[in-house]
Design brief:
Blueprint: H1 35-48, H2 52-66, H3 78-88, H4 99-106
Length: 108
């Protein structure tokens, strides 16, 4: 028989004091995004079992923990840019039926 273990984190402040009760959620964030981007992201949030609000809160918490964005942000170098442009234009693209076909074409 398996047991369900529930872990409840304690909220603490920098001064060492504990906070009782839940945090008040009164701040509002407004952002304009493309409807398709929003729909695709919210579909993934649903699959993960989190709301958009929870996903945004997780993002903010990761920004705080990492003291920056929780992912790399980089401008592609010239070689990467040319490769992306060629792929977008349908040039230098090798199509494979499946993983086995890909490995064969790679000589692996």
């Amino acid at each position: 028989m398996s047991r369900l273990l529930t872990v409840v984190p304690r909220l603490c402040y920098k001064n060492g004091g504990e906070r009782s009760g839940a945090m008040s959620k009164t701040a509002i964030i407004r952002a304009r995004v493309e409807p398709e981007l929003k729909e695709q992201a919210e579909t993934i949030f649903q699959r993960l079992g989190v709301s958009t609000t929870q996903a945004i809160a997780m993002f903010y918490k990761q920004v705080i923990l990492r003291e920056g964005l929780p992912f790399d942000v980089a401008i592609p170098n010239a070689t990467t840019r040319r490769t992306l442009d060629a792929t977008d234009a349908g040039r230098d693209v090798v199509l494979c039926r499946d993983a086995e076909d890909m490995f064969k074409k790679l000589g692996i």
